[in-house]
Amino acid sequence: MVKNILITIIFITCIFANVLAQSVDDYVSCGLKNSPLLYDFNNQKLAGKLDSLLLLATFKPQVNQLTQAIHYPSGTGWGYDEAITNGGTYSSLVSVIQPLFTRKRISGQLQTIDLLNQTLKLNTKITILDLKKSITSQYLTVYNDFTQNQFNQSVLELLNKEQKTVKALVDKGVYLVTDYMNLQILIRSQSIAISQSLIQLENDLALLNLLCGISEKQEIKLVKPDLSVQNNYGAENSPVFAQFRIDSLKNRNSRQLIDLNYRPKINIFADGGFNGIAPENVPHNFGASVGVNFSVPIYDGKQRKLQYEKIDLAENTRINYKRYYSSQYKIQFDQLKNQLNMTEHLLGEISNQLTEQERLIELYRIELEKGLVRFLDFITVFNSYTATKITCLVTEVNRLQIINQLNYLK
Length: 410
Fold this sequence. Notes:
The protein folds into two domains: 2-59 and 102-262 and 301-407, Outer membrane efflux proteins (OEP), CATH 1.20.1600; 64-101 and 264-296, Single Sheet (Outer membrane efflux proteins (OEP)). 68% of the residues lie in helices and 12% in strands. The chain has helices spanning 2-15, 24-34, 36-58, 82-85, 103-171, 177-212, 239-261, 303-369, 375-407, and strands at residues 62-71, 74-75, 78-79, 88-100, 265-276, 286-295. A four-stranded antiparallel sheet has the order 1-4-5-6, with no helix packed on it. Strands 2-3 form a two-stranded antiparallel sheet. Helix 2 (24-34) packs antiparallel against helix 5 (103-171), helix 2 runs parallel beside helix 6 and helix 8 packs antiparallel against helix 9 (375-407). The relative contact order is 0.13.
């Protein structure tokens, strides 16, 4: 009887994962699809393309139309000097302005926009990694609750089935009444454990659904994640490390833009229309003009030098952060690898412990049939086995959690 109970428990705990449906990939896909932050990043990418077009548009010919009519009233002893104002001005002009030699300016500013877009893409990648890591971690938490709840239910079902058999053996004097009472206490304890694990399962599942943006309540059916270490050590492969490279390019680009501001600027312009001082002469004052505008900065209070110093400070900060990050990344990676090795070693020990406990239970089964040991002793051994099994389930999930941290280390 005891052997059949043990075999059935092991069978159920080994196969129940194969009949489940919802995988971690399903939740990850749903979480990425429902993320408002990723939606925001996508719109920012589209806005970045528009920024490039807006920049190019500013260096194209700018055409403006201005119409104005100004009258300067005057009287005896007051009013503007008519030699200056001519009494009034009337004009309507269309002007065109075209900057010249702008290739380097356009290139520098386009590079600024491109670097912002690279940062945006990198932030998108980091957000995706963070979401995957968080969802996977919470999924593993729910899966841990789920496996324990399933195992506890399987144990309870089997204990309930054997209750009548044990009662019959008590009536025959094979076991004591106290043995039967201990079995009833074990059944009640198992029911309490199931209720507790179910509450925890519902709470953790609610957090998982919240993280993935799932509003409807679905049946709890989870698949054990098949996780393996995908991240070989290399801080330079981390998206955070890539941000240091982009920041370096930003500092270099800022220096180039400063230099461009101190280069000569040349614009050509033209206008056409009418411009006169008397309304009656307007039809006779149509004309046009062309010209060139040339400007070059001479002295601005050493602003260029001060801007260089700010960029140098930013670069020094970047280098210091990069050095610190590389060191911290290696420390975290080594710690997680060490934890993974110890956890896998622990799982091996627990597996050996389960094997020995199964053999011990088999020996107890033989001796129980001969009345050589008390039923209470068997209950103690059986409780120890179930506790070890729960420990095995928890340790396996811990191993998967460590792998998840390794794969999304950044």
